[in-house]
Amino acid sequence: MNKFKRYILSLLLVLSVILIWQITENIINTNRLANNETGLEAFIPSPITIVHAYIESGDLILNQSAYTFSRAMVGFCIGILSAILLVYIFSLMPLLRNITLPILFGVNSFPVVGLAPAIVLAFGQGSFSSIIFISALMCYFPTLITLDTAFNNIDQDVLDLMHVMKAPRWQIIRYIRLPHSLPYLFLTMRLAIPASIIGATMGEWLGSKNGLGQLITVALYQLKPSLLYASLFLIVAVSILGIAVTGLLERQFVKWKYLK
Amino acid sequence: MENIQLKSKTPKGMTDSLEPDILYSEKIEHLFFTTARSYGFQRIQTPVIEHFEVFNATSPLNRDKGFWVKKELKPAICNINFDVNNNEVVSIIGPSGCGKTTLLKIVARILEPDSGTIFFKGQNIFNARIDYPIGYVPQNHTLLPNRTVFQNITLPLELKNKNDFKFALDLLELIGLKDYGNHYPSQISGGMKQKVSIARALVLDPELLLLDEPFASVDELSREKYNLELLRLNKILKRSIILVTHNIEEAVFMSNHIIVMSDRPGEIINQIEIPFGQERNSEIRTKDSFFSLTNIVRKLIKDNSNE
């Protein structure tokens, strides 16, 4: 089965799930309304209502999402780049790595849900810096741990060979460790894209005047579940788009991995 | 038994001077010599390694685990003492786990022995910052997957900031992989990878080549072919080779000198001179003396292994 067919089948699967959702929703909704109960639409909107929400408040969602995604993108870049930088420093100074890494694992155990309010307190409620900080934090540790593992998971024979060639540490990084960890970088980027958006949304959710996180809060309190779902699905769509772009980049930069 | 060939594949009047199973045509052989001459390779006059003594080298396994696992420090190899003369192939053979690779890594200066020294052309390799040109081929091919075959061969040159890739190109032709220069390691066979690995070790023109079971992952017939190719290559380059192997036939066929090691802790049981001279072809493998030599080595290893 070729790739195109597989994508078509995945799409069909998603469409059929949406269809089943719509039908079930309709049946339950009419039943509840017939019994003089509140319609199910008030709690779980049907796909058609969500589409309506996009049409009615499309401008609002787009405006707010621009805030969120730009913040997430900045957070993503800061998180990934600082993780790469730290891994690079670690591989230049192994002693520093051995001392610091256990501490970083400890820091990683802080629940971000609890840490986020603390960050918001420190940087100011709804401030740009607090939101990108949370977003960067969300992708920082996964990237750091994955890249550090990749950097240090080099075949001992290769390292021996470089030792025989008297290669200094930076050359080992440049010629061995960096190329070896490139596939892992793309792997961790795929995980970090959703994480950075979650971080940004969480930051906005904790008190911001704009952004999808704020929109979700507002939709919740105004009892507009369709708006809430519309925001969520937009986040999912953008995440998938980001992951697809990463895949394309990977095919470009890690060509040798996809040879036949 | 000798000269069994498929008649259809052997044209009449063809001289039997070239082995039927070798890749090289006479043209390439000519190239061998011109290349060698143009780079000014010549026999080294002094022995490459003399007074090789290694005593009680601790196993790398135990050494790397940190300071709290020191209770199990058995020596990996001890009482090792041998010489390697120039343009000589010395094989190290022994049961698995006897410390052959450890020994080779010590010669490559990857590991340091607890006691003992190695003298390379009269200088202690562990003491001074001497010029110690060696090529090391680890057991696994260790080609970098992100570089093409040619880029892999030129890696040592790049590391040393040398931009003259002419010799690398010639080496690529010498190992018979001229058409594969732009292929990636994942696209070539295991034996080819090992040849590339050997070419990479040779590209800086070392005086001593250390091979750690170079063709261990290759099937028997291909191994014979690659052995012959390696000998051909070395006939031109005239390097000294230390070859670690667990294949007795390979050791007898390739070497001028075999060092037989005992089970752990590895000690030298015996050193055997192989009297076949420098010129070798696959006919040697059918000689009676070849069989008797392999049997001697096999018996030596069996008598001294713990199992």
UniProtKB/TrEMBL annotation, chain A:
Membrane topology field: Multi-pass membrane protein
GO process terms (BP): transmembrane transport
Highest taxon of source: Bacteria
Compartments where located: Cell membrane
Transmembrane segments: 7-24, 72-91, 103-122, 128-147, 184-207, 227-249
GO CC terms, sorted: plasma membrane
The entry's keywords: Cell membrane, Membrane, Transmembrane, Transmembrane helix, Transport
Main location: membrane
Domain ABC transmembrane type-1: 61-245
Family note: Belongs to the binding-protein-dependent transport system permease family.
Protein name: ABC transmembrane type-1 domain-containing protein
Organism: Candidatus Kuenenbacteria bacterium RIFCSPLOWO2_12_FULL_42_13
Organism lineage string: Bacteria, Candidatus Kueneniibacteriota
From TrEMBL, chain B:
Keywords on record: ATP-binding, Nucleotide-binding, Transport
A matching Pfam family: ABC_tran
Keyword Coiled coil: no
SMART domains: AAA
Annotated coiled-coil segments of the chain: none
GO MF, one annotated term: ATP binding
Positions of the ABC transporter domain: 62-288
Protein name: ABC transporter related protein
Organism this protein belongs to: Candidatus Kuenenbacteria bacterium GW2011_GWA2_42_15
Source lineage: Bacteria, Candidatus Kueneniibacteriota
